[in-house]
Amino acid sequence: xxxxxxxxxxxxxxxxxxxxxxxxxxxxxxxxxxxxxxxxxxxxxxxxxxxxxxxxxxxxxxxxxxxxxxxxxxxxxxxxxxxxxxxxxxxxxxxxxxxxxxxxxxxxxxxxxxxxxxxxxxxxxxxxxxxxxxxxxxxxxxxxxxxxxxxxxxxxxxxxxxxxxxxxxxxxxxxxxxxxxxxxxxxxxxxxxxxxxxxxxxxxxxxxxxxxxxx
Length: 215
Hints:
Radius of gyration: 17 Å
Structural class: alpha/beta
Low-confidence stretches: none
CATH class: Alpha Beta
Number of domains: 1
Number of helices: 8
Largest sheet: 5 strands, parallel
Oligomer: single chain
């Protein structure tokens, strides 16, 4: 594990939606009670000698449009050494719910590309992208959950495309949860398909840590 991605003295910033936020702006400040905090605890347990600073800039309900609006203040101005981005499920929901400010795949790609381009030009820090996920196996075609399951591959494909374009690390979280759902019901990991429970958050943190141990 000597090749762990985050080095001694570095700062790692996490940004995203409610899954990243997880109370970090309220009772669970400053890191939240979800995968961000669990990840930092795993790192501390494995690398007690490394003094790593963590910043959580997740905000519940955010889409990539919101990240684009606050990117300079919440990312660029902090100039992190490492950056983690997890966004997409609210963008997808906005399309299915026909919101006036919906973020269809083309717009999602445009703005995701813009924030990554800005980051590459102004900071140049290594990045890990985390795909959106949905903890469901419903493909009936007759429910909202099945509509999400039908559309989410388009958003995942965009994140994968951005990862390849910018040479980032990539955590395929939707695939990971789908693999777990072969063995256990969704209630093991979440109260509903969007927001993980403690077990679900630990799965994210554990997968992220293991991937970043690869260097």
